[in-house]
Design a protein that fits this description.
about 190 residues; 13 strands; 3-stranded antiparallel β-sheet; about 15% helix; metal ion binding; 2Fe-2S_ferredoxin-like_sf; Beta-grasp_dom_sf; 2Fe-2S; alpha+beta; metal-binding
Length: about 190
Amino acid sequence: KKHRQTQPKIPPINSQKNLIFSSTHLIHTNKTLTLTFSSLTMATIQLTTSPSFTLIPSRKQANLAAIKLNNPWSVRRTENRRVSSVVRAYKVIVEHEGKTTELEVEPDETILSKALDVGMSVPYDCKLGVCMTCPAKLLCGNVDQSEGMLSDDVVERGYALLCAAYPRSDCHIRVIPEEELLSLQLATADD
């Protein structure tokens, strides 16, 4: 006996203004749900094991509110809801060996990892914030370097380790010689 594969039924949208699906189908092989809305352009949504995300229509469709998908089978309309925690990449300018490179660094990645990804040849060794091989001077901006081993005095003076520096704003950083940071770190250790 052959088993038939049936398409799952998606419950209707419960709202005063109905959104009309032109076509709806689920491709089981790659877990992609493709929805086409009458007032929106096609949206392809990648689902994970526990999907939870918000689609926000463009400004042209101001009459439609955000559509929130909590699981692949339910669609709810929400009024004027915006994503509050939008992940934003920061612009980080890195000066090294007479060259200036502009990077777009995500808040959850280190400046060193992004610099290496784009092919910069900056000094590094441990990638753990302990060896002092990737020192930099923060000229402007803010970074979180709570995972690094620099003393608070050195951090307050604007020094950072690229391998432990996560941007928290747009930044301008200059890579410095290792000796400059080591002498400062040792001097503050004696205080």
